[in-house]
Design a protein that fits this description.
The complex is a heterodimer of chains A (426) and B (426). Chain A has 426 residues and is α+β, with helices and mostly antiparallel strands. Helices cover 42% and strands 22% of the residues of chain A. In chain A, the strands form 3 sheets. In chain A, strands 1-2-8-3-5-4 form a 6-stranded mixed beta sheet, sandwiched between helices. A 5-stranded mixed beta sheet of chain A has the order 9-13-10-12-11, sandwiched between helices. The longest helix of chain A has 17 residues. Chain A starts with 6 loop residues before the first strand and ends in a 5-residue tail after the last strand. In chain B, helix 1 packs across helix 7, helix 9 crosses helix 15 and helix 12 runs antiparallel to helix 14. The chains are: A alpha+beta (426), B alpha+beta (426). Chains A and B meet through helix 2, helix 4, helix 10 and helix 12 of A and helix 2, helix 4, helix 10 and helix 12 of B. Chain A: It comes from Paenibacillus albidus. Chain A: Pfam families: Peptidase_M16_C. Chain A: This is Inactive metalloprotease YmfF.
Chain lengths: 426, 426
Amino acid sequence: MTNNVFQHGSTAGMRIHVLPTKAFKTFAISLYAGVPLEEGTVTSTALVPFVLRRGTAAYPETTQFRERLEELYGAGFGFDVYKRGDYQIVQFRMDTINDSFVQSKESLLGESFAFLGEVLTRPALENGSFRSSYVATERETVRKKLEAIVNDKIRYAAERCIEVMCEDEPFRLHPLGQRSDLDGITPDNLYKSYQDWLNGAILDLYVVGDTTPEEVEQLVKRHFGRNSSETGQYSSRFTPVTVSGVRTVEEKLDVNQGKLNMGLRTSITYKDDNYASALMYNGILGGYPHSKLFVNVREKESLAYYASSRYDGHKGIGTIQSGIESQNYGKAVDIIRKQLDELKAGNISDLELSQTKAMIRNLLSEIQDSAFELISFDFNRQLSGKERTALELLDQVEGTGAEDVKAAAETFHLDTIYFLTGQKEE
Amino acid sequence: MEQIHYDRLQETLYHEVMDNGLQVYVLPKPGFLKTYATFATKYGSVDNHFHVEGAEETTVPDGIAHFLEHKMFEEPEGDIFATFASNGASANAFTSFDQTVYLFSATENIETNLSTLVDFVQHPYFTDENVEKEKGIIGQEINMYADNPDWRVYFGLIEAMYSKHPVHIDIAGTIESIATITKETLYTCYNSFYHPSNMLLFVVGGVEPEKVFALIRSNQNSKSYGKQGEIKRIFEAEPEAVAKKRLESRLAVSMPKCLFGFKEKASGLTGEAAGRRDLTTKLMLDLLLGSSTALYQKLYDEELISDSFGHEFNSSPQYAFSAIGGDTKDPDLLLKRIREEIDLVLKSGFAEKDFERARKKKIGGYLRMLNSPENIAHEFTRYQFGGGDLFEVLPVYESLTLAETNQRLRDHVDWEQLAVSLVVSP
């Protein structure tokens, strides 16, 4: 595996990370803005990028804004709002064609920076505040998105499980905020929130493509006039939660298939030296089609089509998800818990270890072929403060033995079992 | 080995037909660590009634192509996922209307993984017992889709449009239809559609073409295949009119889902002509309904559509239809307003500058797609099976005209041919 390394610097109050490469046909740009995930600001922070994507000072009408992107050869522009640990992250992405493939008169990288800088720092305004019509419609858009969570039953069950499990922590909050906050948001108070957010957020700007750190620095200076000269720093807000007994919650909804979700707590997070052991634990438990959950719940018992696990290293949480017939609930829970016990007892075969290592090795290598994956991986370092290249992580994974996985398993405690089941009586 | 260089795309494609008729294509991506390979048969859910020269005419149960895809992963020595995992490959498969695709991605042991892919797909192993076991798993997959409103509204639309053509049958079939599947029917389908001459292997990534061809050549020469008779797919005549103007299904949703589209009559178009018609139609739909259009913005501001609003066009020689829509609070009002707005565009036609901008966007989107080995492999195979060439799309985009696009708009939008599918809460 080669080691693609970002060159790190900072200017105009933001950290800049550049990976010069000719491997792609595009320039990939990501801007991360992180703030603590808090009840008081979660909704306004989530709403800001929705309003920013409606128009800028130079392209105040939304159709102008979008036509501009199309002129840049359909530059990909988008944003996401999500949580990482106890931070709320707004990520803007642009993906622009390298000029050499098209007959463009403008520098598409320069124009993309101009555009993104404009989006972030010079929104369309009226009377010194956000346009009221944009705030009103985007408020409804966010409301609809929050209401629509229930449409995807698999995702809904997963989110309900986290809500129940983390009811006393900020992590219970949905990254798009709370419906009840929306009515209180006005153009004026949202504009004020936007300014506070922009001044307070930790900003990381990434570029992958045929460019140099010097060129990027110049573009940032020209297009992102940010007042602050201080670059912020993510700090670990992680406090391990002690599990005292398993909580079981069952809810009813009109579903054809029961959705079974489980939440586990671990003290191991991304910055820890035994992070690799936790990754291996998750891989052997349910990360892949050779994992214990897939083999035992699906292949051996035909109980489910999907049965898998995930590990969130920024929050120290493991999750398990499966879709089953409601009448098989007891059986499925028993089989899943048995797999957790097997791992705790250290019943891990050499084959499971070697297969899981091979899959993680593949995953870490594949990152190198995708600009946005490279960016996401490096951003983990900014978030956790832990410097660890993909190669170093891979070395640690390779060095993990059954005892290490067993030791990791002992830190994973089942906290919550959530079951979403049909309304009909069984 | 034939070598095709696409200068403007800076790509070189290698091609060879094996003695048994298997088409093999290799696209090296220098600098990429990952290799992505797809092994596809031109056989999907619509091929449920067929006649292979020298065999009986056959009608098979709904969902059998997809069932067969599941069952291919089982070998006498166990699940093939485990073999891939041991070699660090992430494997999968999917079934669509007209193809079944087996795939893996890996960064190491490429030759071993390629052999595994080709060998398992060329080695069916069905027993009464393993066929029965799979019915439980696929039953849960069917139930999972039954809970998915996006899937329901999409298939509802096709069901509303088509009464005879099997495109309206759910790809996975129903619990009842898969109950009738036996190992004998699976072998019949396998023997009809998995002959190498009906298949295509595509390998993209950090590979040396000569090595891939040498490997596949010797692999194929070691297996004996008889000559395959011509496959005749039999489709009952489909009426020109839509089957139902409107179809409603019930599922708990936050807001109704509304999808509508126009059913075209069977064109019989194949190859370049079909490819050009598809690209023109997609460009036309984007000009008409894309997020930068005045129509989109009006309906968004009227809160009749949301970010979920989109459009697509699907075609084969026997069917062609658009699917347009998303979440809306008032389906009837949306349909009324859409009709008013589209009728205005029908009168005026598209403007030259909008056409040029939309074309630029499409070209940019196409080039961006070429960053992704997955997309290249899937799109290339789809084009080949349809008689076209993915790498010749750029000149087609450049040769499209405004007049042609306006004509396509008038041909496609025929209100008599409109069908509507809704998912609403019970």
